[in-house]
């Protein structure tokens, strides 16, 4: 069986991390979202919202981390690896805020390709803001648009995961792989 590196994507608060946690509980190899880790590390250094204060630095750190996740996924003994957010997310967020970024961001999107991409739609009923998720629901909808545009720009066919129970969402994803 060929290595499947599968990304779960979607705007903030769509349930990606919940699905990743459930996949882990079922024994699947999964890589978590790293932006919270980057944000928390910056907060320890006194920068409350690194993405808002230094978006390019934040995005460079995310890009580096997501490339490393992809490379590590290739080395996993498991044939299927799930990743919470992918490399094109970095470009989508930079486009969302209207900032420029270096050519290596685009090159990374072209060089590292995921096997499948599952997109989770915005879901107001489950949406929650917290200390690392500062966007409101309307901003989350706008981010979703940028994610869709960016992934399509890099040739991905997005498989939309229906709004449903965690169990049914997992079964849907597993059925598609």
Automatic annotation (TrEMBL):
Highest taxon, organism lineage: Bacteria
Gene3D superfamilies (alphabetical): P-loop containing nucleotide triphosphate hydrolases
UniProt domain NadR/Ttd14 AAA: residue ranges: 6-169
UniProt cross-references to InterPro entries, sorted A to Z: NadR/Ttd14_AAA_dom, P-loop_NTPase
SUPFAM superfamilies: P-loop containing nucleoside triphosphate hydrolases
Pfam families to which the protein is assigned, alphabetical: AAA_28 (PF13521)
Protein name, per record: AAA family ATPase
Organism of this sequence: Flavobacterium procerum
């Amino acid at each position: 069986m060929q290595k499947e590196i599968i990304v779960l994507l979607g705007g903030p608060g769509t349930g990606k991390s919940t699905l990743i946690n459930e996949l882990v509980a079922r024994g699947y190899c999964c890589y978590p979202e790293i932006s919270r880790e980057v944000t928390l590390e910056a907060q320890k250094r006194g920068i409350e919202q690194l993405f808002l204060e230094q978006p390019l630095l934040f995005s460079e750190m995310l890009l580096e981390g997501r490339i490393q996740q992809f490379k590590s996924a290739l080395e996993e003994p498991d044939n299927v690896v799930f990743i919470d957010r992918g490399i094109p997310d970095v470009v989508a967020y930079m486009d969302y805020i209207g900032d420029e970024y270096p050519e290596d961001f685009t090159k990374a999107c072209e060089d590292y390709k995921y096997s499948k991409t599952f997109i989770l739609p915005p879901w107001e009923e489950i949406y929650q803001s917290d200390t690392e998720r500062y966007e409101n629901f309307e901003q989350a909808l706008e981010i979703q648009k940028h994610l869709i545009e960016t992934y399509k720009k890099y040739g991905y066919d997005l498989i939309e995961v229906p709004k449903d129970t965690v169990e049914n969402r997992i079964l849907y994803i597993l059925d598609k792989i």
